[in-house]
Amino acid sequence: MDLLPLLIVDGANVVGSVPDGWWKDRRGAAERLRDRLAERGGPEGGPYEIVLVVEGRARGVESVPGVRVEDAPGSGDDLIAELARNAAGRPCLVVTADRELRRRVAEAGADCVGPRSLP
Known about the structure:
Number of strands: 5
């Protein structure tokens, strides 16, 4: 059985790309992103196994059907790069606008798209 492509979402970067007051409630903003991903999925080309990586004050967001939430113990970028490296040859797409993170995950063989690619 083929595995679904892995979609890794940089929660802090995607939430921070829309100035909607997310800084007042980082966890709530991460929950809204999680719910949007669960409802709408990822960019065209899906379906995906979706992993939302959260860090800092957004930690503690629960997973829901269709979206696994991973709390980064430190840097979210480090966890995202590790997940991309561990994708073990399966297609992997990372959603972020962070240039350095894009470089790191590309070295691991993952593709990248920006936050605006999400429905």
